[in-house]
Amino acid sequence: MNYNDIVGTIGVGLILIAYFLNTFSLIKKDGNLFFLMNIFGAGLACYASILINYIPFIILEGVWCFVSCLGLLKNIKKQ
Q1: Where are the domains of the chain?
Q2: Is the dihedral of CA 5, 21, 29, 19 positive or negative?
Q3: Which of 6, 45, 51, 74 has most Cβ atoms within 10 angstroms of its Cβ?
Q4: The pLDDT of residue 32
Q5: 10 Å Cβ neighbour count for 68?
Q6: pTM to 2 decimals?
Q7: Alpha-carbon torsion, ordered 31, 33, 39, 45, to 10 deg
Q8: Model confidence over 39-70: pLDDT tens digits?
Q9: CA dihedral 39, 42, 47, 53 (to 10 degrees)
C-alpha cells in the first residue's frame, strides 16, 4: 500500500464510520462529531484524489467537505 492509498483509506474509513454510527443512531446526524468525521474524512479522501489526479472524486470529496463545514458552522451558530 502506498501513501495515497493509506490517506484515501483513512479518509473513506472515517466517512463510512460516521455513516454507520449515524445509521444505528449512535451519533446524531446533525451533531458536531458527525460533521467533523465527514470533514476530516472527505478532506483526506479529496487529498488522496488530488494525489492520483482523479478529478471526479476531487469534486465529490471537495463538495462533501465543504457542505460538512457549512453544517458544522450552522451547528456552532445554533449553540
Answers
A1: 3-78
A2: positive
A3: 45
A4: 97
A5: 22
A6: 0.94
A7: -130
A8: 999 999 999 999 999 999 999 999 999 999 99
A9: -150
N residues, the chain:
79
Residue 45: predicted pLDDT: 98
Unique residue bearing C-alpha cell 458536531: 32
According to the 3-state scheme, what is the secondary structure of 12-69?
Answer: HHHHHHHHHHHHCCCCCCCCHHHHHHHHHHHHHHHHHHHHCCCHHHHHHHHHHHHHHH
Confirm if 29 and 22 have CB atoms less than 8 A apart.
yes
pLDDT confidence of residue 79? 82
14-53 CB burial, b ≥16 within 10 A, e <16: bbeebeebbeeeebeeebeebbebbbbbbbbbbbbbbeee
